[in-house]
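Repro case for the chain-ordering regression, as requested:
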Amino acid sequence: MYEKFIKKYAPTKDNLIYILHEIQDNHPQQYVSEEAVQEVSEYLKVSPAHIYGVLTFYTMFSTKPRGKNIIRLCESPPCFLRGSEQILKKLKESLDVKIGETTKDGLFTLELCACLGVCGNAPVMMINEDVYGDLTEKKVEKIINDIKGRQE
Amino acid sequence: MANNKMIKLWIDNKEVEVPEGTTILSAAQKADIHIPTLCYHPDLEPSANCGVCVVEIEGQPVPKRSCCTPVWEGMKVTSNSVKLRHLRKTLVEMVLSNHDVVCPTCNQNNKCELQDLAYLLGVDDSRLPKILEKKPIDDAGFSIVRDPNKCISCGRCITVCQQVQTVNALTINGRGFDGTVTTPFDKGMSESPCVNCGQCVVYCPVGALREKSNTEEVWDALLDDDKYVVVQEAPAIRATLGEEFGMDPEKVTVGKMYAALRKLGFDRVFDTNFSADLTIMEEGTELITRLKEGGKLPLITSCSPGWIKFMETYFPGIAENVSTCKSPQQMFGALVKTYFAEKEDLDPAKIVSVSIMPCTAKKFEANRPEMKDSGYQDVDYVLTTREFVKMIKEAGIDFKNLPEEKADDLMGAYTGAGTIFGATGGVMEAAVRTAYYVLTGREMDNLNVEAVRGMKGVKEASLTIPTKDLGEVSLNVAVAHGLGNARKLMEKVVSGEKEYHFIEVMACPGGCVGGGGQPFGSSLADRARRGMSLYKEDSDLPLRCSHQNPAVNKAYESYLGEPNSEKAHKLLHTYYFQRSTANGQTQKEVTHKH
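-- result from build under test --
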């Protein structure tokens, strides 16, 4: 099932992370499933235990199905000092999820991440590939609603 | 390090000279300087997770972990200081703040390395707040229980599971403070490729890994007048009990072991050594038949249930090479509720068949659905050495001063060949003794097969046998212990790089004396010593070959017929499955019952 993504790369262990990214990026639920791990394990001759260790070490990977849009709010000190805690509270409330959870409609997953490198615009979050800075509660509400609107 | 360059350094002002590449910790040990450790174990690659072994090095801004820092010329090390003591204490306090401190009921109580260290360092358990968030205990399997609340993430279990055994059932989930030891996809040991070898249990410094205990069920059976409780003990048990009761660890304690079992209330005390001899009659006959009739070779032993599940998971293609013989435990179990019940006129439904094993995988083996050839579950309960020791202590038995007793007749007699099953190479040596006799019509001049003894990972030998009907036969044999070694050997067999007639595989380093049910912390040195004590018992016994065992011969004459007879096949032989490398579950039968 994942063969076409896996076979893009040579069967050497150093390709493990590239293959996992390829699988995750092509999955509609943006995660790496058990079945995928098994296929990669057989292709690279690396144990599923090792692959699971790699998947859980890097926060960019998920072993559980996720929403269409992944929100990553920076939890590093500069964003914290500029009020990321309040932003997190707002996100949790308006999406009705806890950290790591996906909304019931499958549209959003809320995650935390380390510094995104744009501390000048703290607090900052990323949704998929886009960065949003100088966040306020109001701004967060608008961003979420805009994305919801685009999905309909 | 390939070169022999020597490095001179000073530890606590003491001059030490060690080869280049030596760690500070090893250099200190050589100089008889004690540095406290927690995650370190001499048998395993250091994981450098805990930081307790820190030392100060002159000119270095911060203390370094001595377990993984190599020495350099002129290095000046301080192993103990106010700063280091404070650091070590704080580290242990942090471990305790996230540890389920339930020492009185923990099975590691009095053996726990964390308990010891915390006490010796004078740690204040109440200084830091408790931050432990309780997680569910993984006890769904038959063999091993994992309690994540006691885990200190030292990583020993992962090192032994991945590097030594190459089973790859355990891994780290997440990282940093949130990192936890778990199985792939957090599905639990029984839904992982775990083969139940229990090496993780032996190396766990705390109570996070243990056997699934059956002592309660056994006590219930012993205290039930309606039940007839029969017990067998593996060869390795007698080589281990002495060290647990403050006796000479180099001597086996057979007579006291029997006496203790009777005191506990077992109705009949037999010996797995009997069925080890029986295994040789069955497996030896199988080998000779395959040699004579051109059957599948090499023949590979099947006594070790950890190895069997490993084979089913990673090498199902060689299942036909694996002997169809059940392990001695299961042969014994099948006979207790048939042969023994018939001879003694007992209702097999009332017999409770208990085995005492150095092994955690034996619990899984006893519960395999196909192990019911007597019409009942052949072995009801398996106790590890640790559980047995606990029962003896609970009953207040003064083991050291017990008078020696003998095993009961019918299934109690054994030879030296049976006893050496407990050490790596022992099954091979026992089989060679009997195969030689069957093929030549006479006993070997020297019964010791030194080439297959000892702790080398893979041992090979070529034995010349002047047979009666095949002329001079040279028998190429190999012995592997530890599943990492078994994997290497099997890869060579599968690729055709090596050709053998007969291979012995034991899942645990050192063989059964190094099993997952043996005392916590058993090092390779302990295992080697226990093996030696079994070879010593063998050399002292009047009968040293399985075919000389009078009880085994009686079982054939009066019940089984001859080795590999139809009845023997029904009760004493088995078949194998292919298992998923993802979760260890059976996928299909790959060999079949005759």
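Ordering looks correct now. Residues 3-57 of chain A form one domain.
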